[in-house]
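Late entry, written up from scratch paper. The run itself happened at the end of the previous shift, but nothing got recorded in the book at the time, so transcribing now.
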Amino acid sequence: MKLLTEKQLVFTLAALSAITPLAIDMYLPSITLMSEALHSTEPMVSISISIFFLGLAFGQLFGGPISDAYGRKPVVLFGLGLFCISSFLTLFVSDVYMLWILRFIQAFGGGLATVNVSATVRDFFSGSESARIFSMIGSITILAPLLAPAMGFGLVSLFGKWEAVFLFLGVYAALAILFYNKNFKSPINKEPAKITPIKNYMEVFKSGKPMILIIALVVSGCGFYAILTSASVIYIDYFKLPQSVFILCFSINIISLMAATKINVKLVRKIPPLTLLKFGLFAQIVLSIVMMILHNTTQILFMAPLIALFVGTLGFVFGNALSIILEHFPKTSASANAVIGVLQYGFGAGAGMLANFFHEDGSLFALTCVILLSSVLGTGILIFGMKRGKNLV
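Output as recorded:
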């Protein structure tokens, strides 16, 4: 059975990975329209974002062990099927509570599918090569959140209905099913194993140094999720930007992340992933300190570049950290990735709610506090963990 080339594999996994950021960001411009159509309020509709994160977490939690036991392909196809069907059913919702339910199912299916992206990379590659592949996938996947808000705005403007966004998501998932089923070939030929989620997850939690790195990755990423969930607060409420400029500023953040990821792809061939990871974490601290100092500024030209550079540091953090972590779980990489995903979405949602909850003073103080705290704690956990025992690599 002929395997995919490296470029084909990267494109396949990137297209699969892109499905969740598309589902999160595409419908942001239509939240006002949705609240009117569903006879609800914007905060009630916005709760569906947190519910989506919750569904992703549960999807990854269940999908990891099943994938490790039965293989990646059946879990991916089932997850994409759930995502596709729930997307189409969302076209017919009449109240916000049904929206919540379908968004959870949609996210659960997305979690089942996307938990296998990192695990599949681990099946094919190891060491610095896996870090390079993670970065290559990331550089393509980043296009999804970069284009998603503009795509959503364009669809709603063209058709005049918020349902157009979910119709697009359903069609995308259907095409992803056809493409993945036809082109993806697994290099692993093994008999189905017993599903042992408790054993798999305990292996991860008891792994020592790798678990410390997972915690460091999750904590340091909370600043990014706080920025993501507070995007409208930052650019529209605080800086009073029109929606078109908001989309531009949001896109600049993703462009920064894309550029850093491409740089990381080139550097990781010569510089160890752990060194690049440390660089990214320390850069986060420096930028978060400057943002904290300038939290009262009303000049978007000061804050926007800082936020963009901070988001860009993730190009040196996520891919390198994942490659190091998954090296320690050759047989249960999907389960390990599920732990990472659940903790990331859980802590990320908490960080976002915390930043928004304490936004009462009208400044960016609460947001910059969360960003600085997550950066310092994440770096501190990594340094402390490395000094406590053997090296991570």
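The chain has a mean pLDDT of 83.
(Scratch paper discarded after transcription.)
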